[in-house]
Amino acid sequence: MKRILILIWTLVLSMCVLAGCGGGENFVNPGDYLGGGGTGEVADSADDVTGEVKKEFSDEDFSELSGNTSTDGATTVDSSSEVYTISEDGTYRFSGSYGGIAFGAKNLQLHLIFDGATITVAEGIALDGKTNKGAEVVLTLLGENSIVSTAEGENAVHIKEGTLSLNGEGSLSVESGGKNAIKVDKELTVVDCALSLTAANHAISARSVAAANCEINVLSAGKDGINAECDDETTAFTTQEGYVYLKNVDYSCATEGDGIQADTVVYLDGGNYNIKTTGTFVPKTQMSQYGIDADDFKYIQSGNTYQRIASDETGRYTVNQLYGLVQGCKGIKVGEIEYPDPNDADKEITVTEGDYSIIIESGTFTIDSTDDAVHANSGNLSVGGGTFTISTFDDALTSDNLTKITGGEITVTKSYEGVEGGYVEIAGGTINITASDDGINAASDDTRVTEHIIISGGDISVNAEGDGVDSNGSIHMTGGTLIVFGPTSGENSALDADRGIVIDGGNLFAVGPLGMVETPANNSKQNVLSYAQNQRISANTVLSLTNEEGTPIFSVTVAKNCQSVIVSCPELAMGKSFKLYGGDTELCAFTVSSVITSVGSQGNMGNPSGMPPGGFGGGPGGGFGGGMGPGGR
Fold this sequence. Notes:
single chain; mainly beta; 40-stranded mixed sheet; 50 strands; disordered C terminus
């Protein structure tokens, strides 16, 4: 359960005498060129466009469709092995076995009742609205129903240039051995009923998908579970198509593509989501065969599985050692709109400007993905609530613009990077991140973005092998609690920011190795303790800070070996004295006299008084009491 920032810098040593700090020489850690001696940048919050997008989806009303289940006046269609063709508007009831249903006229207005109906086809489309397009169909499900198609290259259900709405208290199982299970060229709406889908390609493919109070179970899909794409002629961002809206939906899927993919917006509010995506890895020697870009070969084999590596590490491996994914297989993904270049049929134009958004209001999410778990491409990710358990080979929660978390319980058990965005802003929630690289990362390829991480609330724990919290711009903390168990290698650090780290409030506890330590900046409003020692502090050691009366301010059990400890909390008031303990051993005593208090031993300068060789032993578990705050010297 961890989260990570990346900072690499040169450690500057100097000697100082600090009252009560053991008898060994002291180490002053000034941080990077902006940290612990410089002035850190304080960034403004990023523009939050998701609020405007949210307004367009939050008031969806499905009551009219939900109530439209009457069978009055229905024409009963007898069972037949032949295809039944509908040529007039009306209500039709199917109960029994059928060899297919086809529309014999354009623009039909239909209410179909499936009441224990079974459709089985080996050729053509089972529910065929492709030839005579433009139908508007309400399909009411009563009892158990099924559609099975083994037709090669065909969708099981296809409504061309029309809409399909499913309702009722019954269920429908759709199996497509040739292509998509359900294909709708315009809107697909699902309420109340239960769907079970198996598809060679997408389970659901539509211009837009809206569902409420229903169950959708994708047993398997060769591509996406739910796929919503804009019309090929759409040339600008829009919220009128290309979206997926799910409210109080129980959705599960096992796919080889994305679990949920939309061109413009994904809006999720309530329900349960169990998403499993499985990708196929191929070696770089097969790059041309699969049409994969060279930059996408960013995995290596690790035993019987694969491991994501940093892009600047790929040069260490041969083409036989680098692997890439054959296709995207993200858990939840949005963006971008693509359409054919009118001047060159072999090229596509991508709409990169817009308010592409993933908005998650609430729900329970279990995501196990080979690719990113949640990814807003060229857009914004907003998490306002929900319970998340995420395991991924790549990033857990990521966006190309703003990643904003204001609530929820988020547990990342496995990831390459935990929370990422051009801008990362956390104002609430309980977040636990484990990452093989950075825990929390602000980075962007867009030169117009000046990255930042702003933490104003939340209870955050990061365990990272790369940087714990890393910003290519600035880090600003004003509230909340942030615990960082950084790397054990000196090539990375617990905290890292190119434009400095400013601590104006909250509780900060960060541990890591020596070599790349970065401390907060002198213009922080809350005082900071930066302690360092040459010998390691062993994993499971209880580190605690006490005030001059001996009252504990915090107690944290370190998750891994460390040498650097950075603490900031409101209790670190100017002129007050404190002691830092490792287990029952006093590491140092200090009095706060400036914003940054740096103390400890480094290099071959000897062993601080009372410090056992090899570091400190383990201790009982711990937690915060009273908060963490300013420190200085």
